[in-house]
Write a structure and sequence with these properties.
Elements (H helix, E strand, L loop, with lengths): L1 E2 L11 E2 L1 H14 L3 E8 L5 E8 L1 H9 L5 E5 L2 E5 L4 H4 L3 E5 L11 E5 L5 E3 L5 E4 L2
Parallel strand pairs: 2-7, 3-6
Antiparallel strand pairs: 1-5, 3-4, 4-10, 5-6, 7-8, 9-10
Length: 133
């Protein structure tokens, strides 16, 4: 479910795989957190880094005390807030979660971010990106 204030757009700005949702749900339950915040921060070899942060109840309330409200994507017991200032840069991003699989050369569990090649370019590390704006 997508909640976007003051908009008639119904398309999800961010795609989240089932594996990513499942991991977010587990983390939220384990940490007794409220949700995740997805944003872009300055830095990295391409200009921006992806930032996925877990929020507690106080941080969540503080966000909604501000004038610019985030887009909210919900799935079961998990919420992902998209930083309103970063949203334009994050459009088309897919958030996935991969688990270690030594046979496939994957040696760690982690969230991965895949860009829509029409909207941004990414470096080899997968953490840094540059919008095509």
């Amino acid at each position: 479910m997508l909640k976007r204030l003051f908009s008639s757009i119904n398309k999800f700005p961010i795609i989240i795989t089932d594996d990513a949702w499942n991991k977010m749900i587990k983390i939220i339950k384990k940490k007794n957190a409220t949700c995740f915040m997805f944003s872009a921060v300055s830095g990295g070899c391409n200009g921006f880094n992806y930032n996925l942060k877990i929020l507690d109840k106080d941080e969540y309330k503080e966000i909604f005390d501000n004038k610019a409200k985030p887009t909210i994507i919900e799935n079961n017991n998990a919420k992902l807030l998209i930083d309103p200032i970063s949203e334009i840069y994050l459009l088309g991003t897919t958030i996935d979660y991969i688990s270690e699989d030594y046979d496939k050369g994957i040696f760690e569990n982690k969230f991965v971010f895949n860009v829509d090649k029409n909207l941004a370019s990414s470096c080899g590390c997968g953490i840094s990106f540059q919008p095509n704006i």
